[in-house]
Amino acid sequence: MVVDFRRAQSDHSLPFINESPVEIVKSTKFLGVHLAENFTWSLNTTSISKKAQQCLYVLWRLRKAYLPPPILTMFYRGTIESVLSSCITAWFGNCTVSDRKTLQRTVRTAEEIIGVSLPSITDMSH
Q: Which InterPro entries match (predicted)?
């Protein structure tokens, strides 16, 4: 990914590593975080939300198996909250309001499934 802070856009020649051209991409995933060339975090938020939704289904199934709220909360903290808060200090400060609402919706859904109050996505970022 080429990062260029100049105001005037210009075409970049392909970089070479060991005499082989390197492909220029619009986004990449590095250490589990999706980085976009325009420095927005929507792609990262979408990815996190999808992972968390998959874990919410498992949480819902555990509740249907009549597990008590403390066990469900422990599952939430170990899976869903860890997905939501992965590298959160790097990306959360520059998320759009829409992205934050998307992630908070996941937390609210988990609260409804478990039946207890959980820390908000903003609280996780601090």
A: AlkB_hom8_N
pLDDT of residue 66: 97
Asked if 72 and 113 touch (Cβ cutoff 8 Å), the reply is yes
Strand partners, 34: 29
C-alpha distances (whole Å) from 32 to each of 77, 100, 111, 118, 124 are: 19, 18, 26, 24, 18
d(CA 55, CA 83): 9
Query: For 16, phi and psi rounded to 5 degrees?
Result: -120, 140
Q: Give 60-107 pLDDT, tens digit per residue.
A: 999 999 999 999 999 999 999 999 999 999 999 999 999 999 999 999
Query: How many Cα atoms sit within 13 Å of 126 on the Cβ side?
Result: 4
Q: Does the CA dihedral 93-95-98-102 come out positive or negative?
A: negative
From the list 11, 84, 74, the residue with the least C-alpha distance to 51 is 84
